[in-house]
Write a structure and sequence with these properties.
- By secondary structure, this protein is an alpha/beta fold.
- Helix content is 43%, strand content 15%.
- It has one domain: TIM Barrel.
- The protein is built from 12 helices and 8 strands.
- Helix 3 links the parallel strand 3 and strand 4.
Length: 252
C-alpha cells in the first residue's frame, strides 16, 4: 500500500516572518493528519530555519531544485551534498518552470535526478505537457520522453526510489485543474509504462498530481487509483488550506 505524500512547493515566496507563521500554522494542525506523509520545499535560504522549526515532527523538508554538479566553480548552484548537510531529504527536479523559463532539457533534468540520489535525497521528478501538446494529442509521448531520459541514465530501479509528480503545465498557477479523470489517465499511463519494465517499481512508486490543487478538489483527485497525493504550489502557502489538502487522503 502506497502512503500518500503531500508536498508543498513554496517557490520564490516568503520572509522569515511569514514562514514562521506558516510553519507554526502547519505544526498546529499536524495532529489532524493521519495518512499522508508531508513535505515542504522552501526557498534555499530558508531551509535550515524550516528544518529547525520542524524538528520533532514528521514533516520532511526538500529543496526546490538541485545542481547536477557535486562542488566547484558553479556560481549560484546548490549541490545535493549541501541540501543534505542542512537537513533536506527531498529535491524537486524538472519542474516545468525550470524546463520552460530556464530551458532545462530532459537530459539535464536526468543528471539532476542522478545527483539528488547520489547524495541520499529522494528526487521528486516532475513531468507534464504544455497546453499545445495536449491539444495535439501527444501528452503520453511528452511524458514518456521525460521519463525515458531518467530511465536511460539511471535505470528503472531508480524510479522506485523516487517520487514522480505529473504536472500538466497548462494547470500550474492558472487556476485550471485537470479533471480527476484526465489526471488519472496520465497517472495510469506512467504506471503502465513503468510496469512494462519492472512491475515492482510500478507498484511502489508514488505518483503525485500537481496543478492548482486546492482543498476543494483534493479529495476527488486523491480518490483516483493511481494518484498518490499532490505537489502543491500556491495553496501550500496558506496553512489552513495546505492542512486541508493533507487531510484529504484520510477521507479516501
Amino acid at each position: 500500500m502506497r502512503q500518500p505524500l503531500v508536498a508543498g512547493n513554496w517557490k520564490m515566496n516568503g520572509t522569515r516572518e511569514t514562514i514562521q507563521m506558516l510553519v507554526d500554522g502547519i505544526k498546529a494542525g499536524l495532529g489532524e493528519v493521519a495518512k499522508a506523509e508531508i513535505a515542504v520545499c522552501p526557498p534555499y535560504v530558508y531551509i535550515p530555519m524550516v528544518v529547525d522549526m520542524l524538528a520533532g515532527t514528521h514533516v520532511a523538508v526538500g529543496g526546490q531544485d538541485v545542481s547536477d554538479q557535486e562542488s566547484g566553480a558553479y556560481t549560484g548552484e546548490v549541490s545535493g551534498a549541501m541540501l543534505r548537510d542542512v537537513g533536506a531529504s527531498y529535491a524537486i527536479v524538472g519542474h516545468s518552470e525550470r524546463r520552460s523559463i530556464y530551458g532545462e532539457s530532459d537530459a539535464f533534468t536526468a543528471r539532476k535526478f542522478a545527483a539528488a540520489r547520489r547524495f541520499g535525497l529522494t528526487p521528486i521528478l516532475c513531468v507534464g505537457e504544455l497546453l499545445e501538446e495536449r491539444e495535439q494529442g501527444i501528452t503520453e509521448a511528452v511524458v514518456g520522453r521525460q521519463l525515458d531520459a531518467v530511465i536511460d541514465l539511471e535505470g528503472v530501479a531508480a524510479i522506485g526510489e523516487a517520487v514522480i509528480a505529473y504536472e500538466p503545465v497548462w494547470a500550474i498557477g492558472t487556476g485550471k485543474t485537470a479533471s480527476p479523470e484526465q489526471a488519472q489517465e496520465v497517472h495510469a499511463f506512467i504506471r503502465q509504462k513503468l510496469a512494462a519494465l519492472d512491475a515492482g517499481v510500478a507498484e511502489k512508486v508514488r505518483i503525485l498530481y500537481g496543478g492548482s490543487v486546492k482543498a476543494a478538489n483534493a479529495e476527488e483527485l486523491f480518490r483516483m487509483p493511481d494518484i498518490d497525493g499532490g505537489l502543491i504550489g500556491g495553496a501550500s502557502l496558506q496553512a489552513d488550506e495546505f492542512l486541508a489538502i493533507c487531510r484529504a487522503p484520510d477521507a479516501v
